[in-house]
Amino acid sequence: MEKTLVIIKPDGIERGLMGEIISRYENKGFKITDCKMIKADREILEKHYAEHREKSFYGELISYMTRGKVLVMIIEGNNVIEIIRKMHGKTNPLDAEMGTIRGDFANSATENVVHASDSKESAEREISIWFS
């Protein structure tokens, strides 16, 4: 069974969207096998977002992700990585279709409600960072 890491980001928590978002995953038949709500520190976020370190948005992203709690989940199911990424929609909500999580709820490319692993390799790496 394929696994992915999903994070409901601070804006999703602050706006009370957890239940709606989790329902969408469960309605697709996916199973949450582990989860935790935490206030992520800079160290874990720097590991998670290491590939973005040199990008212009990196500092803003780290500041945003440390401003409040996040819900981090391991979700499993058939083809879960691809399907959840489609459910989330494009990173920038202006480009995301209505009916996707970002299309329905996100306010900006940074405050875009959710994160999901983009490959099996990323899922393994991210799960080891958040659940070691």
From TrEMBL:
<feature type="binding site">
    <location>
        <position position="9"/>
    </location>
    <ligand>
        <name>ATP</name>
    </ligand>
</feature>
<feature type="binding site">
    <location>
        <position position="85"/>
    </location>
    <ligand>
        <name>ATP</name>
    </ligand>
</feature>
<dbReference type="InterPro" id="IPR023005">
    <property type="entry name" value="Nucleoside_diP_kinase_AS"/>
</dbReference>
<comment type="function">
    <text>Major role in the synthesis of nucleoside triphosphates other than ATP. The ATP gamma phosphate is transferred to the NDP beta phosphate via a ping-pong mechanism, using a phosphorylated active-site intermediate.</text>
</comment>
<dbReference type="GO" id="GO:0004550">
    <property type="term" value="F:nucleoside diphosphate kinase activity"/>
</dbReference>
<keyword id="KW-0067">ATP-binding</keyword>
<dbReference type="InterPro" id="IPR036850">
    <property type="entry name" value="NDK-like_dom_sf"/>
</dbReference>
<dbReference type="GO" id="GO:0005737">
    <property type="term" value="C:cytoplasm"/>
</dbReference>
<feature type="domain" description="Nucleoside diphosphate kinase-like">
    <location>
        <begin position="1"/>
        <end position="132"/>
    </location>
</feature>
<dbReference type="GO" id="GO:0046872">
    <property type="term" value="F:metal ion binding"/>
</dbReference>
<dbReference type="GO" id="GO:0005524">
    <property type="term" value="F:ATP binding"/>
</dbReference>
<keyword id="KW-0460">Magnesium</keyword>
<keyword id="KW-0479">Metal-binding</keyword>
<dbReference type="GO" id="GO:0006228">
    <property type="term" value="P:UTP biosynthetic process"/>
</dbReference>
<feature type="binding site">
    <location>
        <position position="57"/>
    </location>
    <ligand>
        <name>ATP</name>
    </ligand>
</feature>
<keyword id="KW-0547">Nucleotide-binding</keyword>
<keyword id="KW-0808">Transferase</keyword>
<dbReference type="Pfam" id="PF00334">
    <property type="entry name" value="NDK"/>
</dbReference>
<dbReference type="GO" id="GO:0006183">
    <property type="term" value="P:GTP biosynthetic process"/>
</dbReference>
<keyword id="KW-0418">Kinase</keyword>
<comment type="subunit">
    <text>Homotetramer.</text>
</comment>
<dbReference type="InterPro" id="IPR034907">
    <property type="entry name" value="NDK-like_dom"/>
</dbReference>
<dbReference type="InterPro" id="IPR001564">
    <property type="entry name" value="Nucleoside_diP_kinase"/>
</dbReference>
<feature type="active site" description="Pros-phosphohistidine intermediate">
    <location>
        <position position="115"/>
    </location>
</feature>
<protein>
    <recommendedName>
        <fullName>Nucleoside diphosphate kinase</fullName>
        <ecNumber>2.7.4.6</ecNumber>
    </recommendedName>
</protein>
<dbReference type="GO" id="GO:0006241">
    <property type="term" value="P:CTP biosynthetic process"/>
</dbReference>
<keyword id="KW-0546">Nucleotide metabolism</keyword>
<keyword id="KW-0597">Phosphoprotein</keyword>
<feature type="binding site">
    <location>
        <position position="102"/>
    </location>
    <ligand>
        <name>ATP</name>
    </ligand>
</feature>
<feature type="binding site">
    <location>
        <position position="112"/>
    </location>
    <ligand>
        <name>ATP</name>
    </ligand>
</feature>
<comment type="similarity">
    <text>Belongs to the NDK family.</text>
</comment>
<feature type="binding site">
    <location>
        <position position="91"/>
    </location>
    <ligand>
        <name>ATP</name>
    </ligand>
</feature>
<keyword id="KW-0963">Cytoplasm</keyword>
